[in-house]
Amino acid sequence: MLQVAEVNKAAETLDAAQVLEYLQAHPQLLTEHPGALEKLELAHAAGSAVSLIERQVEVLRAKNARLEARLERLIETARANEKRTEGVLRLARALIRAPSLASIAAALRHSLREDFDVDEVFIGINANAYTRHDIEGIAPLQPEGALARAYDNFIRTRLIECGPIEEERARLLFPKAQHPVRSAAVVPLEKDKNLGLLALGSREPERFQPRQGKLFLEMLAGLVAAAIRARMA
């Protein structure tokens, strides 16, 4: 085993990478020579010098702080997911118990406002399956209507649209909105069978984002479509 003095002398002719490689290959060196460990000093950000042990403690504390912050974020995410799951279950029960299309619309509005901070809700059903105009929040989608023209790309692709919404489109979807709708999500109902669409609106510009996850929206649309089909049969 090389003595510490010999290592120090050899290190003078070695570059940093070689010294680091040697220490990594012989981690017991400093353990076997604690005196050298105590004498090693590192420059501190404030200009003073600290021992290697003190520096290691600082590094471990910083690492621990990062791990604790990461754990806290994971816990917060888990709590948010649990809350969202509970909200979905409450909504599913409300939709199952709803005796009519009007009660479906009312239950959906209540659940989304109370549990998911969604300000406005709109259900559009294709006019060949639905022609009524007397239920608030549910309207027939006319093939040549203004709403169909405004969302022609959505109707063609049947892909979820999320993000900021233009004022004209917001008025078409949410004509009775109490506050200006700044962002929205438009989701197909029964994508393959083309039952219609579900639109969610928010006064918050960042509430719905183009790159946000779509799983919740797809689950929500599935529940709403199933409830509508059951009451239209």
Task: Please give a handful of descriptors for the protein shown.
single chain, 233 residues, alpha+beta, Beta-Lactamase, five-stranded mixed sheet, two-stranded antiparallel sheet, 10 helices, 7 strands
Residue ranges: pLDDT <50 for 5 or more in a row?
A: none
Which of globular, elongated, flat, extended, rod-shaped describes the shape? elongated
Strand arrangement across the biggest beta sheet: 4-3-7-6-5
N-to-C series of helices and strands = HHHHEEHHEEHHEHEEH
- Give the DSSP E fraction (strand runs of 2 or more residues): 15-25%
SS elements, strand count: 7
Q: What is the level-2 CATH architecture name of the domain at 99-232?
A: 2-Layer Sandwich
Helix content: 40-55%
Q: What would you call the structural class?
A: alpha+beta
What integer value in Å does the Rg equal? 31 Å
Task: Give a short account of the largest sheet.
Answer: 5 strands, mixed
Q: What top-tier CATH class of the domain at 99-232 fits best?
A: Alpha Beta
Task: Report how far apart the termini are.
Answer: 86 Å
3D architecture notes:
With about 230 residues, this protein is α+β, with helices and mostly antiparallel strands. The chain has a domain at about 100-230: Beta-Lactamase (2-Layer Sandwich). The protein is about 55% helix and about 15% strand. The chain has ten helices and seven strands. It has a five-stranded mixed sheet with strand order 4-3-7-6-5, with helices on one face. A two-stranded antiparallel sheet has the order 1-2. Helix 5 runs antiparallel to helix 6 and helix 5 runs parallel beside helix 10 (about 215-230). The longest helix has about 45 residues, at about 50-95. The model has no long low-confidence stretch (mean pLDDT about 85).
